[in-house]
Hints:
By secondary structure, the chain is α+β, with helices and mostly antiparallel strands. The chain has two domains: 18-72, no CATH class; 80-266, no CATH class. The protein has helices at residues 50-77, 90-96, 101-106, 117-122, 149-157, 204-207, 216-222, 245-257, and strands at 18-22, 25-30, 35-38, 43-44, 81-86, 98-99, 126-129, 132-135, 140-143, 162-167, 177-181, 192-193, 225-229, 231-232, 237-242, 264-266. It has a four-stranded antiparallel beta sheet. Strands 5-10-15-16 form a four-stranded mixed beta sheet, sandwiched between helices. The chain has a four-stranded antiparallel beta sheet with strand order 9-13-11-12, with no helix packed on it. A hairpin with a 2-residue loop joins strand 1 and strand 2. The model has no long low-confidence stretch (mean pLDDT 90).
Amino acid sequence: MEKFKKRCKCNVCIDSLSSFNYKGGDYFYCQRCNLYYDSSGVNVILPEGLYVEAKKIESATKKRMQEKILRCKYYENVTQLYYMTHKNNMESILNLGILSKNKVESEKIIYTDCSMKEVQDKREKLIHLNDGAYNIHETVPLYFTPKNPTYYKMQCNLPSEFCIIIVSKEIIHADVAFGFSDGNLGSSYSKDYSDLSVIDKLNWDIINSNEKWSDDYQKRKRCAEFLIYPKILPNYFVKILVDDCELKESVKQILIELNLNIPVEIDNNNKYFYKI
């Protein structure tokens, strides 16, 4: 038997055939003649438009597999995400979620802002998330580690005044846009990214180091960010950390009133907070 050369057998053309899978079998299609062949080269009758639908399914499957591979790099490197806020903001956050700076201000939500104006002014710029460009202040900035220079300075200024919210890395599966940076976005040296396939290029040795940063380069790299638009709802909060018994009880009371089941723990071993 002559080997099937995967070319159309009609008398009009000798076009190469396009392959596709249907119900577990391999088939071939001539788009010019609208003819189908099985794997042995026999002309077969299949439903009209099957090739187009089969290729759509194949394309969607391939895209899902690619996304899975890319997200593996995310899961390999990211353990959890962190957001630190003043204790006065916990009630609104547990009610509304973590909102962006612009949203908080536009909604006239009363909040305690511990950021430095000169730093925030430097962050007044566009970054790229996975579905487009946003002003940084339209996003919620998270860190890959709570032991970073930004949080250190906040705690030095106001010891025992803060809560750290651990955000689940599954947030990327929520109805949000996301992106990340290789350093503090207040610096012009830091770059922003929207493609999870390059997240392994971040300096994870510096980000995850137990040692304190020794220079400006390490300070900037330790503050690599993961940004979310438009907000982070409380159902993505893994736990809330505090370093004060009284604050723990205060947060627990808010959770009870809102019927939320989020663990609140004291960081007794200074795993998350600095010992100031």
